[in-house]
# Entry
Amino acid sequence: MKAHLTRRYKFSASHRLHSDAMSDAENAATYGKCNNPFGHGHNYTLEVTVSGQVDENGMVCNLVDLDGFVEREILERFDVQNLNTLPEFAETVPTTENLSIAVYDILQRGFRLAHLERVRFEETLMNSFEYAGEKQKL
# Structure
């Protein structure tokens, strides 16, 4: 019997949306107030959804294992950080779409106790972002 589990985590981080490949005018036009040279911050809510067979203990995976992995690999890496300064965004604008991809990739590479379905970020009351990996073409 396959089931899905979604777990929520919270962290805060700042970023500036700016591309060195564009002029200041292009950055301002593309990113608006999010191109502020001083950056801005968000209190992110991250949802991680995994799936799998329900085991003999009645679980898709052990929450302690999932929480520990997310704490070590995601929260310790991104909480109270300026995303622009992190290696994940050395060549990528730290939009929340790109943050979703980076977090998904980290989880996909390292968490093997259940199948990673998707990650979802709430950035503000008005903005949320979801990423479920690259789907193979048939």
The first strand starts at residue 2 and ends at 15.
